[in-house]
Amino acid sequence: MAVVALVFALALVEILMPAYDAFLGRPIVLHYLQDWPLLLLVVLVAAAAGLVSGIYPALVLSGFRPVTALRSNQSGQVGSGGLRSALVVLQFTVSIGLAITTLVVFTQIDFARNQALGFRRDNILVVGTGRMTASARESFMAQLRAHPGVTGVASSGDTPFSQNLRVEAVRIPGQPTTLTPEMLQITPEFIDLYGMKLVAGRLLSDKRGEDITTGGPDARNDGHNLLINEAAARYFGFTVRGAVGKTIRLDKDSLRIVGVLRDVHFKGARKQVQSSLFVNDREGSNIVSVRLTGHDVPGVIAFVDRLWHRMSPTTAISRSFLDDSFEELYRADVRQGELFATFVAVAISISALGLFGLAAFTAERRTREIGIRKVFGARTRDVVWLLAVAILASGGPGQPDRLAAGLVLSARLAAGFRLPHHPEPALFRRRRVGGPADRLGHRAQPRLARRPIQSHPRPALRIGGNHAPQLSGHCAAQHHSPQAVQRHQYRRPGGGAGLRHPDHIVRAR
User: Fold this and answer.
1) Backbone angles phi, psi at 227, to 5 degrees
2) Best CA proximity match to 441, nearest among 400, 469, 502
3) By CB count within 10 A, which of 18, 49, 143, 217 is most buried?
4) What stretch of H or E contains 356?
5) Backbone phi, psi, residue 258, to 5°
6) Which of 303, 330, 331, 329 has its CA nearest to residue 127?
């Protein structure tokens, strides 16, 4: 059977391979002849699984005692069913663990998406100007500002969520070590367009010659000004207020700090804030950021395309929204969460099959007991509750929830986001974690218990029934008619039939 299952599994893989390729975004090809070691390994694993799965039934059958079964009308089965319960517990532990992992992934992604980054990223269209000259770029930006659907235009050497920021070697006068902060070329409009906050000093301006820097090997920027962020001030050994007016050495030039900006997460909430320098360099700022009003966005994009093709007809435009770059940061995490969700569905399906088998076995063994309890006035919900408690008491699916939650949350997945985040305490309560598993156990019980409960009790009370399990005492060895049994029926003080254990029937008789 294991080999047959392997054949069906390989056929299912071939059917689902195109969908999995689309999910991963890359093709996956399995060549059975070229990848024969992998195929051989799969066959060996299937054969080993078949052998291991057949060991337990063989042990049970070899431990069957026919003499005992024929003498006392028992099934001759041995063991307490601990292995069955342990397997069900293991299945649901894996299911709950995967479910919590999926919940943690999507919770962290949602947290990172909604976390304040320190700047505005909405309605920003990023256009790469490539080799466009500085004068042509200024003309392009001026015409963009004149459009009514545009509220602001700025240029920079790079944009947020890019991993390619320049790193510069900086020396602090009086300190022997060389520091390596990141540097970003911007225009003065960049700070206002992205909504960045100034915490000390002033901003750069084109009206001040010392605020303008130039790039290139022959550039002379000695005595010019720049901005830094709070992380850079700490990195350099300054306070935020005390950093204003300090001088740093950048290559062979001495630059003066005139302002300190609030820290922003240019690389997303998952990365720590890097120490950064900001210089006013229009020549090196070849990426244009356009803030839109949000009205008639397709019309504004069409205007940008026409303007670009008019100014650079031989070059294709390169544009994208900043929100798309932000979503790209977490695309791999979203795929991971979706993959975990698929595993959860498969694991819960397998666990439900195991729970169904355990519930069916329990209901089948207690068919005669259910019949006796019905004769004594037990209601359907009482017997259903009795069987449900038996499943849960034997190590049902709701028991390992806190263990699974602790194992999953101890993983470093949640630590991948640098910003502090504490999931709500209700996440670890039974109603959140073990609740679905508990409800699954309770739903499986009524369906399996309804057949013996709603059937007539007389066939279940007959001695020698094919499906009647053993009862304690000698109640299973004697035949009681419904009239005889009803004489021993007792009433609760408030009225209504009571619910007795079969051992009490013998003692009452």
Assistant:
1) -110, 155
2) 400
3) 143
4) helix 331-365
5) -110, -10
6) 303
Three-state DSSP state, 151: strand
Residue 473 CA to residue 476 CA, distance in Å, equals 7
Tens of pLDDT, residue by residue over 427-447, are 444 444 444 444 544 454 455
Question: Rounded distance, CA 303 to CA 204, Å?
Answer: 31
Residue 447's contacts (CB-CB under 8 Å, 6 or more residues apart) are none
Rounded CA gap, 494 and 505, in Å?
Answer: 21
For residue range 141-167, what is the model confidence (pLDDT) as tens digits? 999 999 999 999 999 999 998 877 788
For 296, residues 6+ apart whose C-beta sits below 8 A from its C-beta are 149
Is the whole model's pTM more than 0.90, yes or no? no
Compute CA distances 134 → 137, 204, 280, 350, whole Å. Answer: 5, 19, 14, 64
Q: Tell me the β-bridge partners of 491.
A: 497
Contacts for 4-9: CB closer than 8 Å, 24+ residues apart: 5/46, 6/42, 6/43, 6/46
For 281-323, list the strands marked E by DSSP: 287-292, 318-321
Say if residues 53 and 2 touch (Cβ distance below 8 Å).
yes
Asked whether the predicted pLDDT for residue 363 surpasses 70, the reply is: yes
CA angle 305/306/312 to nearest 5° reads: 85
Q: Are 137 and 277 in contact (CB under 8 A)?
A: no
Coil/strand/helix, residue 179: strand
What residue type is 77 in one-letter code?
A: Q
3-class secondary-structure state, position 394: coil
**In sequence order, what are the beta bridge partners of 124?**
291
SS (H, E, C) 431-469: CCCCHHHHHHHHHHHHHHHHHHHHCCHHHHHCCCCCCCC
